[in-house]
Amino acid sequence: MDIRYSLHPDHAKSLDTTGLRDNFHVPPLFTAGEMSMTYTHEDRVIIMGICPAATALELPSDVENVTGTSYMLERRELGLINVGGPGSVEVDGQTVALDTQEGLYIGKGARDVSFSSDDAANPAKFYANSAPAHASYPLKKVTIEESSPVTLGAAETNNERTIYRYLHPDVMPTCQLLMGLTKLATGSNWNTFPPHTHDRRMETYFYFDMAPETVVFHFMGTPDETRHLVMRNEEVAISPPWSIHSGAGTGTYSFIWCMAGENQTFEDMDFIAPEDLR
């Protein structure tokens, strides 16, 4: 498991491109037959890319040196969205089939969790985030039709988009995880604008559905001294609470956002006027 530590914003201002990527960029998540895991000290979220091939993959049981618990979800919850081919997740003997862009919430206390693909030639790709949890909520599958969609932005500002809220109080109870998928309308390239911070929550951005030649410029940093990460398909940007997070792409893309922190109020954002950005 890769470990990322929290940085003070004044420290982040001093980093070059390599330093920014070492701290806030997660490389392509999916390799057939493997599970990748990155632990960030920003609200202690674990970022996962799970791509089972011919055989199932299981959540690791030897995590005491990372989580201090006897199994991974002893005091954690987990949310995931499948961005690959059809597959399934087995949770303590209960199997849930997941097609492309279907999500699943796994509550605190789930002990035996495994992931499978229906076809190794077209494997499932489970993008997952896990955060500490104080209570146990039921296992729940969420389809994109059930995900409380809302359309924001406008074509004239290049940011028309539909936000599908999978893990959200309007859909299901969770301890702290919020998770959803944003699709941009044709011709729009800003995934959110104007940018914002939410000092009460961290966020991860998983970019996908991108052509090989497409890149997204993910803008981060404090509003008075912004930076950027160049993102490619199936990579993740870690956004600490003090950082803006906004992106613009050179082609079509989608992204999955996940938040953890003090509250679950999706609208709790501090917007930054474009004229105040530096």
UniProtKB/TrEMBL annotation:
Q: Which GO terms describe its molecular function?
A: 4-deoxy-L-threo-5-hexosulose-uronate ketol-isomerase activity; zinc ion binding
Keywords of the record: Isomerase, Metal-binding, Zinc
Q: Cofactor(s) for this protein?
A: Zn(2+)
Q: Name one GO biological process term.
A: pectin catabolic process
Matches recorded under SUPFAM superfamilies: RmlC-like cupins
Q: Show the Gene3D superfamilies listed in the entry.
A: Jelly Rolls (2.60.120.10), pectin degrading enzyme 5-keto 4- deoxyuronate isomerase, domain 1 (2.60.120.520)
Per the record, the pathway is:
Glycan metabolism; pectin degradation; 2-dehydro-3-deoxy-D-gluconate from pectin: step 4/5
- Co-factor: note: Binds 1 zinc ion per subunit.
Give the EC number(s) under which this enzyme is classified: 5.3.1.17
Q: Which NCBIfam families match?
A: PRK00924.1 (NF002091)
Protein task: Catalyzes the isomerization of 5-dehydro-4-deoxy-D-glucuronate to 3-deoxy-D-glycero-2,5-hexodiulosonate.
Q: State the family named in the UniProt similarity comment for this chain.
A: Belongs to the KduI family.
For this entry, the protein name equals: 4-deoxy-L-threo-5-hexosulose-uronate ketol-isomerase
Provenance organism: Cognatishimia activa
Provide the organism lineage as a comma list: Bacteria, Pseudomonadati, Pseudomonadota, Alphaproteobacteria, Rhodobacterales
